From TrEMBL:
It comes from the Eukaryota. Residues 173-253 form the Expansin-like CBD domain. InterPro entries: Expan_Lol_pI (IPR007118), Expansin/allergen_DPBB_dom (IPR007112), Expansin_CBD (IPR007117), Expansin_CBD_sf (IPR036749), LolPI (IPR005795), RlpA-like_DPBB (IPR009009), RlpA-like_sf (IPR036908). This is Expansin-like EG45 domain-containing protein.
Length: 259
């Protein structure tokens, strides 16, 4: 797994200000076909896997609904962070020790040492063991790397609405956001914000992992946030971030994508 610890000054140098231009997006469906891959596990045998992770979800990976359902992936699925938040079903192929059920995992981390020429999952110990028949969790983990099949699936966070975390180091001139609990596609392909009293949507830049940012200013809240996903689905949370926002705070909207 991989961790990021970088200064706000460095992050701001990666971010730039642009004004959103008119852009047409065509909605497509998730590819839910099964594909071959491999899987390993990391962390404690019955553990939740990552403590934080390269996507930037922090302590969210330690609590439900992400708890014990997280996974790290190689570059094929991590996609330089654009795969963060996507959900997959992963199924073991060794029928002598594995059940027929698939485990559902959420991409929260990067696996830098994973192969780049094939799809590989590095799962939490709990998620990996969940693929075994009852009582054989330990034996399955002892096998190390195993062949699997996987497919994309919709993310479902029952009882949760989309939330926006204002990242540490944010100011009225450099604003960075992380999206949490996104039903449906789970990923973000573009993000825009709208200031109070403005009709203009300002485009945010993908920073790292699941984090986005904008340099402008001074930015004046409350902010509305517009999201687009990899399949072209869109959602707008009106005035979700208040005028008195503060860094390291999370603001929950009143809506979510339908799974």
């Amino acid at each position: 797994m991989k961790h990021h610890c970088v200064s706000a000054l460095f992050l701001s140098s990666l971010c730039f200000f642009t004004v959103a231009q008119g852009q047409t997006q065509h909605s497509v469906h998730l590819d839910t076909h099964w594909y071959p891959g491999t899987a390993t596990w990391y962390g404690e045998a019955e553990g939740d896997g990552s403590t934080g992770g390269a996507c930037g979800y922090g302590n969210l990976v330690d609590v439900k609904p992400l708890k014990a359902r997280v996974g790290a992936v190689g570059p094929v699925l991590y996609k330089k962070g654009e795969g963060c938040g996507e959900c997959y079903k992963v199924k073991c192929l060794d029928h002598t020790i594995c059940s027929k059920r698939a485990v559902t995992v959420i991409i929260t981390d990067e696996c830098p040492g994973c192969p780049s020429d094939r799809t590989h999952f590095d799962l939490s110990g709990a998620a990996f063991g969940h693929m075994a028949v009852k009582g054989e969790n330990g034996q399955l983990r002892n096998k190390g790397e195993i062949p699997v099949v996987y497919r994309r699936t919709t993310c479902v966070y029952t009882g949760k609405n989309i939330a926006f975390q204002v990242n540490e180091g944010s100011t009225p001139y450099w604003l960075s956001l992380l999206v949490e609990f996104e039903d449906g596609d789970g990923d973000i392909s573009s993000m825009h914000i709208q200031e109070a009293g403005s009709s203009e949507w300002l485009q945010m830049k993908h920073l790292w992992g699941a984090n986005w940012c904008i340099i402008a200013g001074p930015l004046k809240g409350p902010f509305s946030v517009r999201l687009s996903t990899s399949t072209g689905r869109g959602l707008t949370a009106k005035d979700v971030i208040p005028s008195n926002w503060s860094p390291k705070s999370t603001y929950t909207s009143r809506l979510n994508f339908s799974p």
